Amino acid sequence: MYPAPFRYHRPATLGSALALLAELGEGARPLAGGQSLIPILKMRMDEPSDLVDIGRLAELTHIRKEKGRYCIGALVTHARIAASTAATDIPVIRDCAANIADPQVRALGTIGGSVCIADPSSDWPALLHLLDAEIVCGGVEGSRKVGIRDFITDSYTNSLADGELVTEIQIPIPPANSGGAYLGFKKAAPAYPAASAGVQLTLTAGNICHDIRLVLGAAGPVPVRSEDIEQALTGQPLTDGKLQEAAGALVELSDPPADARGSAEFKRAMLRSLFMRAAHTAMQRASGETVSGSHDYV
Amino acid sequence: MSEPLQTVSIDVTVNGKACRRDVEPRQLLVEFIREELRLTGTHIGCDTSFCGACTVLLDGVAVKSCTLFAVQADGAEITTVEALEKDGQVHPLQQAFSEQHGLQCGYCTPGILMSSLALLAQNPNPETQDIRKALSGNVCRCTGYQNIIKSVQAAATVLRRS
User: Fold this and answer.
1) Cβ atoms within 10 A of the Cβ of B89, count?
2) Of B28, B48, B83, at which residue does a domain stop?
3) What would the pLDDT profile of A210-243 be if each residue is shown by its tens digit?
4) Which of A75, A94, A132, B91 could disulfide-pair with A60, CB 3.0 to 4.6 Å?
5) CA distance A115 to A3
6) How close is the nearest chain B Cα to the Cα of A51, in Å?
């Protein structure tokens, strides 16, 4: 399968890449690791006039810890994130990064590319919703920062303006006594998950929930979160009954499509069970246990 | 009237040999390897980044060459399955796949060999689970993975001794 012809550019600096994207306008697409974009081009779901290869821009390859956040350059690969201190400091990041697709895809695919493509089944969008990440968008006029929930507006749709690039993802570091887990189910490693769920929480003595965030992935056009459901759990002991109630209410908000990965009914059942497992793992981790989490596949 | 197709000059080192070619930007690395360089050991399986039959090493790292443009590999060192045999001697991985019946129909084997090569370079003594994880991006549709795992283990033992 061949993509439709396009013109290829490889600017040497971020500044020249932004200038070029601004000049080329709406027909141009940035090419990072290509692990989502190239399959889309091969299936001719998109036929850009120009590809601007940003894959070698050294300005976008950093992982920095500053002011209570991890700042991750848009071009950092899944494999590098999985092996970084961000993944040891924030275990949900490892759950996500180490289990995206397979080793070959993780070696090339980037966090920035994944969040920009915004495939409704992909892992980073769900995880970044769970961690309330902020997306730094650069342009010739300067850069702006936007919350993940305003960045991804629909399936395969982000709020970048023509000529803008995602340059960095900022993830707040959760406080002490926090724990999180992100789990998915997929038919094989290279596949997108049929369903995924994440829980990030902070506990006080007696397993009282001080703060909690919940997310469902592959559950509709964009990741599903609900502040109402999170609020209802805050200040409460996290009993199984309370968590089951939250799982039911959250799955009620989901709208998973029936497709080759399963019927809507199957996916809702998976979302519910993944959510419960993620919640239990998050609680164990918050109380200091080391629990390995990963996507399941047969 | 459409404009003439753009070509881009790339320099790559393939199996130790430097080569310069003009390529159309949309040419995939796997097509470049098979059609331009006539190295047909690298297979196209699913052509959708799923099966891993097209796995090659890019600067020592296993990647799917159906999901990479040849222009992106400009300046890189590419290793394909043809590099395994040296002076008429097959590589211990190839020997082990033959002896342990790891080939099965053989179609996915070039990709599996390259993923295994990348694994053993990093981890000379892998556990079964490490091998399964390293090969999770390589799909075999014949029977299963038991003999493939055995083959990688057998090759690891030989390579550790040498």
Assistant:
1) 10
2) B83
3) 999 999 999 999 999 999 999 999 999 999 999 9
4) A75
5) 22
6) 9
ipTM exceeds 0.95, yes or no:
yes
Question: Is B138 within 8 Å of B55 (Cβ atoms)?
Answer: yes
A8 vs B28: CB contact, 8 Å cut-off? no
Q: Are B34 and B53 in contact (CB under 8 A)?
A: no
A249: three-class secondary structure by DSSP? helix
A38-71 confidence digits (pLDDT tens): 999 999 999 999 999 999 999 999 999 999 999 9
Q: For residues A130 and A202, state if they share a domain.
A: no
**A119 CB near a chain B CB, below 8 Å?**
no
Rounded mean pLDDT, A117-142: 97
pTM here? 0.96
Return the C-alpha torsion angle A156, A153, A103, A169, nearest 10: 140
CB contact under 8 A, A190 and B69: no
Does the pLDDT of residue B1 top 70, yes or no?
Answer: no
* Burial category of A205 from C-beta neighbours within 10 Å (exposed 0-12, middle 13-18, buried 19 and up): exposed
* Those residues with Cβ within 8 angstroms of residue A298's Cβ, 6 or more apart along the chain or in another chain: A187, A188
Residue of B52, B72, B138 with shortest CB distance to A34 = B72
- Name the residue with tokens 């992982």: A63
Note whether B76 and B97 are same-domain residues: no
Q: How far is A52 from chain B (nearest CA, A)?
A: 11
Amino acid at position B89, single letter: Q
